[in-house]
Amino acid sequence: MSVSKKYESIEHEGIVERADDRSVTVKIIANSACSGCHAEGFCLASGQKEKDIVIPGKYQVSPGENVKVLMKKSMGYKALFLGYILPFIVFMAVLIFLAVFSVGELYAGLGALAVLIPYYLILWFFRKRIENKFTFTIKA
User: Which one, of 64, 68, 56, lies nearest residue 14 by Cα?
Assistant: First the structure.
């Protein structure tokens, strides 16, 4: 992953798997945060996941071609907010609320964890609507 020189988009290198008149499917390898570590090859925690990104539109690319997948940096911040920051805020708010009302540490912690279940279920139910807001483009 890299950020473009103008700091306006996030780039991932990938390989075109399929291309037709309606969309292009690109396989990217998402490296974990420890990809720069010298022990990466021996560590079980280092993770590389292949992800298929479907990009709507017609592009002049062919299967097997190396391309760069671009996403606006603001979309990356939005994903970060929905996936990590907002659930953390909800978790902490519920934890503090329950702790203030002397529910007990165990039940306050369990209640704060339990509130994340409906949060992520709501995200899952609205995943199609959320996916439509995240747009990708290809740079050959």
Answer: 68
